[in-house]
Amino acid sequence: MNTTFSTIETNKSKALVINALFVALTLVATMFINLKLPIMGNGGLIHLGNVPLFIAAFVFGRKTGAIAGAFGMGLFDLISGWTVWAPFTFFIVGAMGYVAGLISEKVPGKRAIVYSMAVAVALVIKIVGYYFAEVILYSNWIQPFGSIPGNVMQVVIAGIIVVPLVARIKKRVI
């Protein structure tokens, strides 16, 4: 009985540490590796926060992906002056991490294709989610189109980095 309890507590502790690590990595990659595009509206922010988000989702699953995205990028918004965006980011990027992890867990097939599909679905979630977030914030249906190039670039760049590496990372971690 004591061994089972100890194993459960060890697994909970391990999950807590992994989730906290990926929240921190997502926050740091979003905060310190970014570039604001000089285009209309919000303009779009290109950052590498999606790299640890996708690694978390593909290696550790949908819950870790959701937590890394929601809390990592949500915290970025809160502490970097984009506070009004935090609730939108929490749900949009949390959904990206969850769905990417879900696809990587459940869809059979060659892993690189599955990961690429997961990145593509996450991209759609990001574009649609932030488009409507900007419509709500700016009361304008045209202006949000200016952020789409930045959203596309940051997710595509993250996919280009993560998809070829994640199988190797997964072998070493699990």
How would you describe this structure to a colleague?
The longest helix is centred in the N-terminal third of the chain and has 31 residues, at about 1-30. The chain has one domain (about 1-174): Arp2/3 complex 21 kDa subunit ARPC3 (Orthogonal Bundle), CATH 1.10.1760.20. About 80% of the residues lie in helices and about 5% in strands. The chain is mainly alpha-helical and about 170 residues long. A two-stranded antiparallel ribbon has the order 1-2. The radius of gyration is 17 Å and the shape is globular. Helix 2 runs antiparallel to helix 3 (about 60-80). It is built from six helices and two strands. The protein starts with a helix and ends with a helix.
Can you tag this structure with a few keywords?
174 residues, mainly alpha, Arp2/3 complex 21 kDa subunit ARPC3, 6 helices
